[in-house]
């Protein structure tokens, strides 16, 4: 009934009143007077007239009318909410290692063994989804580094490009310094109150710019570089048969990068700890975006109230005239 009256998607000003519905619907039927007792069974043989067949109608109208009044008392409202977001949030560049060693399948998603890169992509996707008011971009690196996704608030597109990242997309070696430099260069071009780089790698820098020099440059630009180390340190977990050498995590360099940029270094030995790392960073880098909500409520009880009164008026009219009962 309310859908027909245009009350789809409504809210209630006094929803507790709706608890009265079962009472007002049932009570009129309980209060009906008993039928007359016939003195002879032969009198019941006649076919019922139209009036007799519709004898229930006043009671039905009473139930419907009272139900409509209860709906009116509950104050149905059409609520129009408008959210105004002042975007002074954080610019975040995710820097992801795609070198050959990231293919090692020593992480798990669900109960399946997956590569380090696959686990990283799963966790990063959840991180992006949880920050709708920030601009986020993606830099991938191997022996080279390039921007896969520029800083954007279109996180749907960001997620799609993230899933396209694959092993070796930027070469098989590891150039951490170049990755930081590229990310800092992209950040430098933008004016934002907070600029954060989150670098994830499972190896040490073997080519390109010195990572410490790149970190110092980022620090001079007032950027924080959080570093995350994946896999086993000391050469464990490499894909020796495929790439000729395993990955060796240089935790000392990663810690120094974080220290120089007033950030933190994290170690993620498995998918759970990797998820906790991103959750920790998410809590540390709170968005400064301000959201203001305007709410306009339009009362919609008038038509249902009129319907209830009309039904009760019709009930009285029928009960006192055509469908009047004998005392």
Short description:
The chain is 38% helix and 22% strand. With 327 residues, the chain is α/β, with parallel strands linked by helices.
Q: Can you offer a commentary on this structure?
A:
This protein has 327 residues and is an alpha/beta fold. It contains 11 helices and 11 strands. Helix 1 (21-30) packs antiparallel against helix 3, helix 4 runs parallel beside helix 10 (271-284) and helix 7 runs parallel beside helix 9. The longest helix is centred in the last third of the chain and has 20 residues, at 301-320. The two termini are 34 Å apart.
Supply Rg: 35 Å
Strand content: 15-25%
Distance between the termini: 34 Å
Structural class: alpha/beta
Number of strands: 11
Q: Which runs of at least 5 residues are low in confidence (pLDDT < 50)?
A: 1-8, 233-246
Kindly state the percentage of residues in helix.
25-40%
Query: How many DSSP helices?
Result: 11
Taken from the alpha-carbon principal axes, the silhouette is elongated
Strand order of the largest sheet: 7-6-3-8-9-10
* H and E order: EHHHEEEEHEEHHEHEHHEHEH
Largest sheet: 6 strands, mixed
Q: What is the average of the pLDDT values?
A: 80
List keywords for this structure.
alpha/beta, six-stranded mixed beta sheet, 22% strand, disordered N terminus
Strands, helices and their partners?
Blueprint: E1 11-12, H1 21-30, H2 50-53, H3 57-73, E2 76-86, E3 90-97, E4 107-109, E5 112-114, H4 116-129, E6 135-141, E7 145-152, H5 155-163, H6 176-188, E8 194-201, H7 211-220, E9 224-230, H8 240-243, H9 251-260, E10 265-268, H10 271-284, E11 290-299, H11 301-320
Parallel strand pairs: 3-6, 3-8, 8-9, 9-10
Antiparallel strand pairs: 1-2, 2-11, 4-5, 6-7
């Amino acid at each position: 009934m309310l859908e027909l009256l245009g009350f789809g998607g409504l809210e209630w000003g006094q929803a507790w009143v709706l608890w009265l519905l079962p009472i007002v619907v049932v009570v009129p039927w309980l209060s009906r007077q008993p039928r007359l007792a016939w003195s002879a069974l032969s009198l019941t043989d006649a076919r019922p007239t139209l009036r007799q067949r519709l004898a229930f109608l006043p009671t039905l109208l009473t139930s419907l009318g009272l139900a409509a009044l209860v709906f009116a008392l509950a104050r149905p409202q059409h609520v129009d909410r408008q959210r105004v977001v002042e975007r002074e949030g954080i610019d975040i560049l995710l820097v992801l290692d795609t070198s050959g060693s990231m293919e090692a399948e020593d992480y798990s998603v669900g109960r399946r063994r997956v590569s380090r890169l696959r686990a990283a992509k799963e966790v990063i996707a959840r991180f992006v989804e949880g920050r709708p008011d920030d601009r986020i971009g993606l830099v991938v690196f191997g022996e080279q580094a390039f921007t896969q996704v520029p800083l954007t608030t279109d996180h749907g597109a960001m997620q799609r490009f993230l899933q396209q990242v694959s092993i070796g997309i930027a070469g098989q070696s590891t150039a951490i310094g170049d990755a930081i430099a590229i990310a800092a260069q992209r950040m430098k071009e933008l004016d934002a109150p907070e600029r954060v780089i989150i670098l994830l790698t499972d190896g040490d820098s073997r080519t390109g710019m010195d990572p410490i020099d790149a970190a110092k440059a980022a620090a001079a630009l007032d950027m924080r570089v959080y570093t995350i180390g994946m896999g086993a340190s000391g050469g464990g977990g490499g894909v020796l048969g495929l790439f000729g050498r395993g990955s060796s995590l240089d935790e000392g360099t990663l810690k120094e990068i974080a220290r120089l940029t007033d950030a933190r270094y994290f170690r993620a030995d498995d998918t759970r700890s990797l998820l906790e790392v991103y959750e920790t960073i998410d809590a540390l880098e709170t968005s400064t975006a301000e959201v203001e909500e305007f709410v306009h409520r339009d009362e919609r009880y008038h038509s249902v109230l009129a319907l209830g009164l009309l039904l009760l008026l019709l009930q009285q009219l029928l009960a006192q005239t055509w469908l009047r009962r004998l005392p």
